[in-house]
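Worked Example 4.2. Consider the chain below.
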Amino acid sequence: MGLFDKVKKTTIESRRYEEKLYEVALEEVEAGEVRKGLYAKALSKADGDKEKADGIYLKLRVQAIMDDIESEQIDRRDNERAYKAFQELNNKKIVKIKSGLVKTDGKPTLENAKKKIKGSKFSVSKAIGANSYFVDYKDGGGNLYQTFDLEELHNWIDARLV
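Applying the procedure from the previous section yields the following structure tokens:
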């Protein structure tokens, strides 16, 4: 397919997309779901002529739908960038825990997790009244890790033992 054909096909798809948006806008009008502010704008542009305002309203509503879609896409891209930045920051927070390599019986218990990091600058605790486990700096420097699963807690510690 040549460049001209690609441009033509994109134009055709764009018109079909716009047609669907007009269908959505018309269905909203038929269901009585008119945005008053947008209709007032259409009425103003039509110099008070209600028949003209109806047509103008459809054009304005289609543009508003397109704006909503574009805004959602921008938000999604921003969220993806923020999540990626969060992951990069979180990966930088990976800490190697220096441990006395205390042998445990292998069972994922809170006591065994505490034994594993004994002698390090970290502590393991359980939230009071909840099944939430934390790895924190002993000096109060903040929370490194939180989970609701003891096995995940042990896996996290094991992955960082030096």
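Residues 3-92 form one domain. The chain has a mean pLDDT of 85. Compare this with Example 4.1 before moving on.
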